[in-house]
Write a structure and sequence with these properties.
Elements: E1 2-6, H1 10-19, E2 25-29, E3 43-44, H2 51-58, E4 63-66, H3 73-80, H4 89-95, H5 98-107, E5 115-117, H6 125-130, E6 134-138, E7 148-151, H7 154-164, E8 169-173, E9 179-187, E10 193-195, E11 199-204, E12 207-213, H8 235-238, H9 242-253, E13 258-267, E14 270-277, H10 287-290, H11 295-303, E15 316-323, H12 329-333, E16 338-342, E17 352-360, H13 363-378
Parallel strand pairs: 1-2, 1-4, 2-3
Antiparallel strand pairs: 5-8, 6-7, 6-8, 9-10, 9-11, 9-13, 11-12, 12-15, 13-14, 15-17, 16-17
Bound molecules: adenosine monophosphate.
Length: 380
């Protein structure tokens, strides 16, 4: 089995690593010749519009996938005419653009914060829909909190719009969320679907720092507010949590093949979708040691038309990102049940260099390990 991965960052690296035990050969394509996936798999270092290099890359591959959503749509579509590309390039088209993304989510019944495109000739009209405070975001190429800012007043709003122009912009209501969660699901070529448990995510400065996975009780109440909690089972319970329903709906609406991540805000008993990542996701890294089958292996199984593996968690897990600088390796490895992953990248402020997954039999034990890990990192 031979596959190609567009993008050679840590996600491509972990996909390639997951392929080895299954005998899957991966080749990676990235414009940066030193992309870190190149340390574990053959790498083609060429631009995304080098059609000769792309034609050679497509040759002999069963299918091609991608590990980041800013792969140019034209590249994915050009390849799709020669070899299957999973997930469908339609997912790139939708989820590269925050406006198309939210319009699509709403069209399949997944709620989002109120939003409106910002008309450069009449920017204030967007506020009629979102009100203040609001978040101003570039429609394209935003990630890890880049290309966005919060406005509390009209003056701040206009200053932000001016700062980001001439980029196309979207305004969103600023949501007073209790927590941020993500739901990761996978759909295979045959239509089989599996959904990992919901994960709580803690961000700092727009970058994911910690993901926490609780097995029981569920992150969200299984009964809607006001519903009689003693009536059992509730319709919501039967169908799994709201977040899982949303992911299933999204996978089916697009005939999607591969792993998808849906990031959401929890506001009271409601979930509002923030964004979709049409790929394996940072908040799913815990699955390498924490689930029966990792998101990386299940992505490969899905795109190759193989049966999916169990997504059952193997205990209480947490994942901590290593950002900007690394702690002493010996100190991490001394923490019981700490699994260290380093991506082979040169340290730079704000750069994701690796992660640690913690796994324990009880929530209390997991929380103690997490505390110990965060204390260690606070000294770096
Ligand atoms: P994003 O790039 O859209 O994932 O946004 C980065 C982070 O900004 C999110 O993880 C949230 O913490 C925050 N954020 C983005 N949009 C909103 C919103 N509409 N309301 C509240 N917080 C937001």
């Amino acid at each position: 089995m031979r596959i190609g991965i567009l993008g050679g960052g840590q996600l491509g690296r972990m996909l390639a690593l997951a392929g080895y035990p299954l005998g899957i050969h991966t080749e990676v394509y990235d414009p940066a010749p030193d992309a870190c996936a190149g340390q574990v798999a053959p790498l083609v270092g060429a631009p995304y519009d080098d059609w000769d290099a792309l034609a050679r890359f497509a040759e002999g591959k069963q299918c091609i996938t991608y590990e980041f959503e800013n792969v140019p749509l034209a590249t994915a579509q050009w390849l799709e005419a020669r070899v299957p590309v999973h997930p469908t390039p339609r997912a790139l088209e939708l989820f590269q653009d925050r406006l198309l993304e939210k319009q699509f989510l709403n069209s399949i019944g997944i709620p989002t914060p109120a939003f409106a495109p910002i008309d450069p000739t009449d920017p204030d009209s967007a506020l009629e829909r979102t009100g203040l405070p609001c978040v101003v975001k570039t429609r394209r190429f935003g990630y890890d909190g880049k290309g966005q800012g919060v406005a509390h007043t009209h003056a701040e709003y206009r200053a932000l719009v001016q700062r980001f122009q001439p980029h196309a912009l979207i305004a969103e209501a600023l949501v007073p969320f209790e927590r941020e969660v993500s739901a990761i699901g996978v759909r295979s070529l045959s239509g089989e679907i599996a959904l990992y448990p919901l994960v709580e995510n803690i961000h700092q400065e727009g970058i994911l720092r910690v993901s926490i996975v609780d097995v029981l009780p569920p992150l969200l109440p299984t009964h809607a507010a006001g519903e009689d909690a003693t009536r059992s089972p509730s319709p919501r319970h039967e169908h799994g949590s709201e977040g899982e329903d949303y992911v299933r709906r999204l996978l089916e609406a697009l005939n999607y093949v591969g792993v998808v991540a849906l990031e959401m805000f929890q506001v009271g008993a409601r979930l509002l979708a923030n964004e979709v990542a049409p790929r394996v996701h940072n908040s799913g890294h815990w699955t390498i040691e924490g689930a029966e089958t990792s998101q990386f292996e299940n992505h490969l199984r899905a795109i190759l038309g193989l049966p999916l593996g169990s997504v059952a968690p193997r205990g209480y897990c947490a994942m901590v990102n290593l950002i900007g600088a690394l702690p002493p390796i010996e100190a991490v490895l001394r923490i019981p049940n700490a699994h260290l992953h380093l991506y082979g990248k040169t340290p730079r402020p704000g750069r994701k260099l690796g992660h640690i997954t913690l796994r324990a039999d009880t929530r209390e034990a997991r929380d103690a390990l997490l505390q110990q890990t965060l204390e260690l990192l606070s000294r770096v």
